[in-house]
Amino acid sequence: MTDRRSQILSAALQIFTERGYCDASLAAVAERVGLTEQDLQQMFPARDGLLTEVMRLRDELVARAFTGFSGTLSDVEAVVAWNSTRAGLVQSFTMLAARSLTDGHPGRDFFASRYGALRAALARQVCRELGDPGPSGLTSEQAATLLVAVMDGLQLQWLLDPESVDMPELVRVFTQLLRTKLA
Fold first, then answer.
1. How far lies 69's CA from each of 9, 78, 81, 162, in Å?
2. How many domains does the structure of the chain reveal?
3. Over 90: is that where the pLDDT of 162 sits?
4. How far apart are the first and last CA of the chain?
5. How far apart are alpha carbons 138 and 136 in whole angstroms?
6. N or C: which end of the chain has fewer CB within 10 A?
7. Which of 14-39 are b and which e, b meaning 16 or more Cβ less than 10 Å from the residue's Cβ?
8. Could you give the C-alpha distances from 136 to 43, 74, 77, 166, in angstroms and in order?
9. In this structure, is residue 88 part of a structural domain?
C-alpha cells in the first residue's frame, strides 16, 4: 500500500471511528491528510468505497491486535470485547454492512465474502472444540451461522442502548450455550 493511501485509510479509520458513518465525510478525511476533497475523490470517488477499504484495514488491525488469535470461541469473545470499546467503528461497520445489501453497492462483494469466510472459519473451530454435531445438537455450520447472527444483532442493540446491552457477556453466554447439552 502506498504511503499516501495508507495515510488516507488511517485517517478515514480514525474519522469513521470518532464520528461514526453518518457524521464522517470525504471532506473531513481529505482535510486530515492535507488534500482537497477533489484530490481524495480521485483515489476514492465515494464514501462507501472508502469505508469498504477502511473495513479491510479494520480486519487487518484486529488480526494484528490478536496475533495469537486461533479462532477459538474464547478468542471470538475477546474480539467482541475489543469491539465494545470502539462504538464509532462498530457503527460504521454495521451501517456499511446494512447498506451493502442494495444492488450495486461497492461493499456488497466484500461483505458477502467476509461473512462466508467468517462462517466457514467459525464452523471449523466449533467442530474442533465441540464436535459435529456439538453438545447442543447443532451442526458446526448452524452454530457458526447463529454465532455471527448473535454478534451482529448484539452490535445493533448495543449501538442503540449501550448501557443495557453487554455484548461481551452475552456472546460469552451464547458460546456457553453452544457448549451445553440441550434436552
1. 24, 9, 14, 26
2. 1
3. yes
4. 53
5. 6
6. C
7. bbbbeebbeebebebbbebeebeeee
8. 49, 17, 19, 23
9. yes
Report pTM: 0.79
Query: Coil, strand or helix: which one is 56?
Result: helix
**pLDDT tens string 34-44:** 999 999 999 88
Measured between alpha carbons, how far is 117 from 72 in angstroms, rounded to an integer? Answer: 15
- Residue 151 to residue 69: CA distance in whole angstroms: 18
User: Which amino acid type is present at position 113?
Assistant: S
Q: Which of 74, 55, 79, 101 is nearest to 155 (CA)?
A: 79
Range of the domain at 173: 47-178
Give the three cell numbers for residue 111: 461483505
Q: What's the rounded Cα separation, in Å, for the pair 117 and 107?
A: 15
The answer to whether position 132 is within a domain reads yes
24 CB contacts (<8 Å, ≥6 apart)? 12, 15, 16, 18, 47, 92
110 alpha carbon, distance to own chain's centre: 12
Average pLDDT, the chain: 86
